[in-house]
Design brief:
The structure is a homodimer. Chain A is of the alpha+beta class. Chain A folds into four domains: 270 residues, 2-Layer Sandwich (BirA Bifunctional Protein, domain 2), CATH 3.30.930.10; 110 residues, Herpes Virus-1, CATH 3.30.40; 85 residues, Signal recognition particle alu RNA binding heterodimer, srp9/1; 133 residues, Anticodon-binding domain (Rossmann fold, 3-Layer(aba) Sandwich), CATH 3.40.50. Chain A has 25 helices and 29 strands. A nine-stranded mixed β-sheet of chain A has the order 3-10-11-21-16-15-14-12-13. The first copy, chain A, has a six-stranded mixed β-sheet with strand order 25-24-26-27-28-29, with helices on both faces. A three-stranded antiparallel β-sheet of chain A has the order 4-9-8. In chain A, helix 2 packs antiparallel against helix 14, helix 5 packs antiparallel against helix 7 and helix 16 crosses helix 17. At the A-B interface, strand 2, helix 2, strand 3, strand 4 and strand 8 of A face strand 2, helix 2, strand 3, strand 4 and strand 8 of B. Chains A, B: Pfam families: HGTP_anticodon. Chains A, B: It is found in: Cytoplasm. Chains A, B: Keywords: Aminoacyl-tRNA synthetase, ATP-binding, Cytoplasm, Ligase, Nucleotide-binding, Protein biosynthesis, Transferase. Chains A, B: Belongs to the class-II aminoacyl-tRNA synthetase family. Chains A, B: This is glycine--tRNA ligase.
Chain lengths: 663, 663
């Protein structure tokens, strides 16, 4: 977790420099900044907006189109009852503690992490080791931590203890975090005080719907619930076919306790979520698993983490599933597909790992859960979650509302079932038990085959039986033979009913977007010896704008060529921008390297003579020259990744003319 | 306003039938329906979602790409201060009244409208005229209105009065609506009671941001404010160039009092908004106005409405601007561009009009405002607003925060300015007036040239002057000559500073989507004499899915052809779906006509022999047959609208073989 952040070319990554470029070029900017801003809220400017749109577009093609998923767009406003049933009202919380001196509110796990990491840094310093630059960059944090950051050497076994805690930090609950704070005497560096014991803080934004404020609601914390509630309609839309997946792209909201870390921890964020509904019988096989089984993933399983380590294993997903590291084929299939998606976007393959959730970290109903994490200057960041949510959500919503969120499958051959069945005599049963009627009935119907067999014998022998019903009378209830029948019967079933399980790949688009920027960022020194110039080497399909059109000067004769070229590019679906400012061509290209624009087309006096233009590639700064149509065709093939720059160089004449000026 | 709704082919439109198709085919569905639903909240299913995405895609190309607008994506959560400044906290409200008997909450203007329309219908019935079917369809409403809907003949002048009120219904404030309710003794049909006087109800959803609930906020009611707050950054991103436009697509929220009318009045909705920033000097000319000036629009101006009429005039936009019907070229340019956009989507050209806002209806700062309205079975529906917001928003945010939301323009030739200037002696002025210092200073600086000249003379004569400052002392303040200087000076300005005006085209995507469905809906009788079959004749670019692939039967030999065809279509960017269910080909095509799928490709045994397939067009049900590649190319040209179906019929052999079966 504690490697020094690097750029695409392995240079040390200075986050302050990168941040200032991203704000200056309006990739994103704090929302409401002229009003002082609100932490955890950001606006995307034109390049950020285009980058986001391209990521979503690739996501839609990679997942929805490729697998015929059913896209839905559901309401963000969600009534209380839905989120009460789903468990979010009771359990969607983080642990929060308060500094008793200055009232500062801290997120407990982040506080513990910060304190331990600070102490480990102090230890390294005392031992004379090189200190990583992570966190140092954040001037505000640095200031706050001055007190804690003294170079104090720790005992070797204390260092191991700290590292072990950090490796499983996501596995602690509030009480355990409180114990750690006391045990290691952790104090808020700003005040020297020990924070109060952690309490749960629900992360949902609350509001009320309608004019009479009578319907409490929340902003959804995930898009998933809307998809679950529509399950029956989606199944019908899919003409009953299983398995199938729904998908949704939209904003969700979490009232983070103390958001920092820029785009990585925000209160309003774009998610892309898939709910893949699958038959729980038959080990959740996936019919396309063979297509991905040889793909190797970097896995950090839960056993490794619980042993206090963070070592990854590189394993083909086929092997990971067959060895039981990953629970089932469908889950494994999606992990591999997520990997391919991130690769397509241009994520650095050395900075990705799949981390398995530990038991306490996982929702109680989940069968297995893996996060795709990307390494950034903030450490490893969870960008995609992929959980097996079992039948939990569909079951609870069905129980609560009575809506049948199930699949009815015609059986090829009827199933003969022999079992003990209970028939309640409704007319007598209810009046007999009065207010306890429903409770007793539920208890009777919940009995196992073994119990029923015993009760049937009791009835025969004694005309009654005694059943445990907690909360009714003294917990023992006597049921007489006039109130029900228990019989061993044979019946034939032609239809099987089941509640599907759900595999949920869930993508945090903002986190992916930010990590992608860090992974594609590097600097190159300029010929003139100026300061290093930033480059964002996005793949062409991801880049906000594909082409910069650069007339050599503001000469009016260039205007018709600019117009025609931009029109031609638009016709083949390629976005371009024109920079006809008075800056030198070199400066103009540099500015666009910062925006990640992969190609530049120069229009010069030669263009007026013979219609030829030059095409420059961002990463190599090399150029070719050809006719306008050839260049447009070349750009198209580069943007749809059907050709590489090397292909283009082998096909079109290299241009060296303005090399010095344009580099 | 009271025409009977019709389908694309002029048939009477039965909204109940259409609604049930739209829900069954999952264009949209009430959100949280298994929990009983929440009025004003809807989810889009797969076809609705695709339709919405296509509308947005066309919008982006038509506006953002075509005019190089700067797209931004801003936060929905908005702190109180921002919306206080913008005026929304105080004024973003509807008039609400309450039925004293059953507590029902009514939106006052809708209530007045409903009562008067019901009385006019009763009058028509009494006169033996044909009654329109509008509203009748809504069974619930019908029931409620039983009492009011008696066939009572009205005096001729009363009918005129009612019609005149309805024509300007949007022009009444709360008090006036209350007066109308009393004057015409309007009663809630459900109870026979007269509702309470209207009170203002703020339409914003409130929440609080952060763990300590100390930052009150709202869900934005429009995307505009985020764009205004980023003005300075956007201007810089645009390297200072004016005019320019920002644009945003995103959800906004309005806590409607009593939402009905399906997708037309919802609490959560997708908007697409443009803020075009323009220099207020020089009559807001637009450099591309000549491209649109001959386009004829159906205009309903405010004078016509105030005279109680709803007659539209068909006027070329050039003439409308030169005659002052539309305030300026930039506003006129966007009205024409909006018209072209709606036309491109497939809006019925006979069901569109541009209605000008009346004085009371318009925000007080607006210079002019027109709504593009589409005629549906609910009457005329505002789908796009196009307002000249003047410099209001930028000015108030700038005043509140001190951020300079202005343009600085270098003057070609310096401007010599001669005027009275005030220099405050800060060191003495503040201490002298103590707590009133800022107020008095503001009053002094707000003086006109005439006042300054007079004050300068007073100072010379009496060593002081007296200025009106409401709220300070008795409203009169004496200012001595030691506190300031007032002098007539000459200075040279090289830079002009101004606050841009804003022209704002604002699109309600859900309303456009619904109106578009009604405009493209019709029914055709089937050959077999079954019930009428629904068709949604969306233009190919708008249709949710472009192609249905239909194998003649479930024969396994078809599988490779299906796969290859769907792959080929995907490669050229065309979405397709496969229907290999066991229904007849005719049934399968019928189902897809309901979804608006424009083309169908049949794979049959001939395909296996020679690779040829048939292509069916949805509206004519006619077919051609050719090789797979020819058909894919034909579909591509049809979808990008470079060819018409007539072109294809003239190029490829007509196929009549399965006509009866496939119609």
């Amino acid at each position: 977790m504690t490697t020094t952040a690097t750029t695409l070319k392995g240079q040390p990554l200075d986050r302050n420099v990168l941040d200032s470029i991203l704000r200056r070029r309006m990739f994103y900017t704090p929302s409401f900044e002229i009003y002082g801003g609100v932490s955890g809220l950001y606006d995307y400017g034109p390049p950020g907006c285009a980058l986001q749109a391209n990521i979503i577009d690739i996501w839609r093609k990679h997942f929805i189109l490729e697998e015929d998923m059913l896209e839905v767009d559901c309401s963000v406003l969600t009534p209380h009852d839905v989120l009460k049933t789903s468990g979010h009202v009771d359990k969607f919380a983080d642990w929060m503690c308060k500094d008793p001196k200055n009232g500062e509110i801290l997120r407990a796990d982040h506080f513990v992490e910060d304190v331990l990491e600070t102490r480990l840094r102090g230890d390294k310093e005392a031992r004379g080791e090189k200190i990583e630059e992570k966190e140092e960059a954040d001037a505000k944090k640095k200031k706050k931590k001055t007190k804690g950051q003294a170079a104090v050497k720790l005992e070797d076994d204390v260092v191991k203890e700290y590292e072990s805690i950090l490796a499983k930090i996501d596995n602690y609950n509030g009480e355990q975090l409180g114990d750690l704070i006391k045990k290691y005497d952790m104090r808020n560096a700003a005040t020297g005080a020990q924070p109060s014991p952690p309490v749960a803080f629900n992360l949902m934004f609350q509001t009320s719907i309608g004019p009479s404020s009578n319907l409490p609601g929340y902003l959804r914390p995930e898009t998933a619930q809307g998809q679950f509630l529509n399950f029956a309609k989606l199944l019908e839309f899919n003409t009953g076919g299983m398995p199938f997946a729904s998908a949704s792209v939209g904003k969700s909201y979490r009232n983070e306790i103390s958001p920092r870390a820029g785009l990585l921890r925000v209160r309003e964020f774009l998610m892309a979520e898939i709910e893949h509904f699958v038959d729980p019988e038959g080990n959740k096989k996936h019919h396309r698993f063979h297509e991905v089984e040889t793909i190797e993933l970097a896995l950090l399983d839960r056993h490794t983490q619980l042993s206090g380590l963070t070592t990854v294993k590189h394993v083909p997903i086929g092997k990971a599933v067959s060895e039981g590291i990953v629970d089932n084929e469908t889950l494994g299939y999606f992990l591999a597909r997520i990997h391919l998606f991130l690769k397509k976007l241009g994520v650095d393959q050395t900075k990705i790992r799949f981390r398995q959730h530990m038991a306490n970290e996982m929702a109680h109903y989940a069968a297995d859960c893996w996060d795709a994490e990307l390494l950034t200057s903030y450490g490893w960041v969870e960008c995609v979650g992929c959980a097996d949510r079992s039948a939990y959500d569909l079951s609870v919503h069905s129980q609560k509302t009575g809506a049948p969120l199930i699949v009815r499958e015609r059986l090829d051959e009827p199933k003969i079932i022999r079992e003990w069945e209970v028939d309640i005599e409704k007319k007598k049963f209810g009046p007999f038990f009065k207010k306890d009627g429903k409770t007793v009935e539920a208890a009777v119907l919940a009995t196992t085959q073994e119990q029923r067999e015993k009760f049937a014998k009791d009835l025969e022998a004694n005309d009654n039986f005694v059943i445990d019903v907690p909360g009714v009378a003294d917990g023992k209830v006597e049921v007489g033979q006039d109130l029900l029948k228990i019989e061993y019967r044979t019946r034939t079933e032609n239809v099987r009913e089941y509640t599907p399980n759900v595999i949920e790949p869930s993508f945090g688009i903002g986190r992916i977007l930010y990590s992608l920027i860090e992974h594609n960022y590097w600097t190159r020194s300029s010929d003139g010896g100026d300061e290093a110039r930033a480059v964002l080497s996005f793949p062409p399909s991801v880049a906000p704008t594909k082409v910069l059109i650069v007339p050599l000067s503001s000469n009016k004769d260039f205007a018709p060529f600019i117009r025609k070229l931009s029109q031609k590019l638009r016709t083949v679906g390629i976005s371009s921008r024109i920079d006809d400012s008075s800056a030198t061509i070199g400066k103009r290209y540099s500015r666009n390297d910062e925006l990640g624009t992969p190609f530049g087309i120069t229009i010069d006096f030669q263009t007026i003579k013979d219609g030829s233009v030059t095409l420059r590639e961002r990463d190599s700064t090399r150029q070719v020259r050809a006719s306008e149509d050839e260049i447009v065709a070349a750009v198209k093939s580069l943007v749809d990744h059907s050709k590489s720059w090397a292909d283009i160089e082998s096909e079109l004449p290299i241009f060296e003319g303005q090399e010095v000026e344009i580099r």
